[in-house]
Amino acid sequence: MSSTDPFLAPEVLLEHLQTITILESMFPSEITLPSSFSVLSDLVPILESNNPVLPPSTPLPADFRLILSLDIGSSPPRLLELEMVLPLRRSFDSLTSSPRPPSRIVLKLPTYLSRSQYAELCTSPLLELPPEAPIEDEFIDRLLLLVDHLRETIPTLISENESQRVHRESSSQESEFNQKELDRVWFWLPSLSTKEKRNDIVRMAPSWNLTGFVLAGKPGILCLEGNSKAIDSYMGWIKSVSWSDIPAFQKITERHRTPLITHRLFQDMVEITDLIEHRGYHGNRGEMGQVRTWIEDRGGMIEQQGSWGWHQAQHDDRAGVQMTDEL
């Protein structure tokens, strides 16, 4: 279609003008009008006259193209551009077919959606107005339905994209943390009693593919098995986020780190505080003999050692640990 094709019927052009006026009142700051809008506005007296004929040479394009910059209601705010196309002319070869070409709404591809998501949105029947439909009312009704549909759908798509991004990063991190080179690391805490902080230790460990156990009390004990980098990253999170309110001198101390010779002793991350008896004046000192028994029940082998530490030993094909009562 070209700018020399005949115009649509005068009543159709007047309806387009009325539609644009309504849209401008509904979206005063979001609508960008074409420069040719003022030209058609100046022609209203002719269109409303008894001889409403516009010569093909009238300086008007084949259609009006309005841009609606729509806030889709996401957080942070994101805009979606909709181009509304209102035809002003029809081609010579369509003079005997439909009364007028359809009005359309074109979605611009935003950076925050994938091409497949964009393509799916573009299949909406709300984007094209049937030629036989009343222009003004039908177009505005469809536009409002489309706006509601987009504001409901797009935030969900953005959330899906964010979840997929986090999953990809998590998978990449998990791949790094699933390396075969595994360590067992023992940590000493002067005191561990807060339930929320103990819960964080257990709850967050799977995100780093770590296993082991934690024992609350004075002192507290934490044993971790996993990739060395994963252990360091996990402990960095624990210290800076979960335990950010604890003074540095009261925080955890790494006491021993050794490579696993065979396999993990622990299959998950658990708290064993309620499984172990406690002694001492305040009843907060864990009974290490029961800790030994608990470890041996899981296939570990315990050996006494003269200095502080829990160490891995090799006994046949089982992972063993050495420990001391200096806890």
Automatic annotation (TrEMBL):
<protein>
    <submittedName>
        <fullName>Uncharacterized conserved protein UCP038021, RWD</fullName>
    </submittedName>
</protein>
<feature type="domain" description="Small nuclear ribonucleoprotein Prp3 C-terminal">
    <location>
        <begin position="186"/>
        <end position="250"/>
    </location>
</feature>
<dbReference type="InterPro" id="IPR017359">
    <property type="entry name" value="Phi-like"/>
</dbReference>
<dbReference type="InterPro" id="IPR010541">
    <property type="entry name" value="Prp3_C"/>
</dbReference>
<dbReference type="InterPro" id="IPR059181">
    <property type="entry name" value="RWDD2A-B_C"/>
</dbReference>
<dbReference type="Pfam" id="PF06544">
    <property type="entry name" value="Prp3_C"/>
</dbReference>
